[in-house]
Amino acid sequence: MIWDWAFAIEILPRLGQAAIVTVQATVMGFALAATLGLGLTLARIAWPRTALPISVGVELVRSTPLLIQIFVLYFVGPEIGLVLDALTAGTLAIGVHYAAYCSEVYRAGFEAVPRSQWEAAEALNLNRGTALMRIILPQAIPPVIPALGNYLVALFKETPLLSAIAVLELMQTAKIIGSESFRYTEPITLVGLFFLGMSLISAALIRLVEARITQGVRR
After folding, report:
1. Which residues form the signal peptide (predicted)?
2. CA–CA separation, 41 vs 108, rounded Å?
3. Confidence category of residue 217, pLDDT binned at 50, 70, 90
4. What CATH number should be reported for the domain holding residue 141?
């Protein structure tokens, strides 16, 4: 029998528990990525002296594999006093990795704002911080939401890498079930369907957020 419905239903609770871990890693990782990425971009703009070291750090993170970064944080971290549990280390690594990509997305959004907006703020005698937060930022964020959404989906699909440090997320749980039962068709297929469904839901939510923000900006 290629597909056993009874076995598929039997393993659903275990996969459901693993799905919670996957969603937790995704939500916390993306929250860190979006926040840290924006912070890096604002630092570049507000303090030009930080632009070079931040650019070097971003390129370093983007140019090295995420799996290596996970290993370094989890296995090398304790050597320098940074002891983290597997889920925290993995989530932190994913968040920092995608923060580098998000910072470039934000940077593109800020660069797309016409220079005349900065000049108008200066003419109104607004300081750089006020101009950045109240005039430039509201114009820079809406256009980059689709790109940020793409990274959310990509980050979500990267969570199986956490199995390398024994985080019991979906893919690791499916492999354990397969090794116990010698049936891989059902667990792997269910995991694939879960990732497909969550990716479609995430894409729909991103479009909804984009529409709401765009509508708010127009008002």
Report:
1. none
2. 10
3. low
4. 1.10.3720.10
Report the candidate in 27, 32, 48, 46 with the shortest Cα–Cα distance to residue 137: 46
CB 161, CB 6: distance < 8 Å: no
Q: How far is it, in rounded angstroms, from Cα 105 to Cα 151?
A: 10
Q: Do the beta carbons of residue 93 and residue 76 sit within 8 Å?
A: no
Q: Domain of residue 172: give its range.
A: 5-218
Question: According to the 3-state scheme, what is the secondary structure of 128-176?
Answer: HHHHHHHHHHHHHHHHHHHHHHHHHHHHHHHHHHHHHHCCCCHHHHHHH
Burial of residue 108 (number of CB atoms within 10 Å: 0-12, 13-18, 19+): middle
Q: Tell me the two tokens of residue 76.
A: 């090398």
What whole-number distance in Å separates Cα of residue 93 and Cα of residue 212?
31
Among left, alpha and beta (phi > 0; psi -120 to 50; other), residue 19 is: alpha
Q: Compute the distance between CA of residue 25 and CA of residue 33 in angstroms, rounded to an integer.
A: 12
* Count: domains in the chain: 1
Strand residue runs (E) in the chain: none
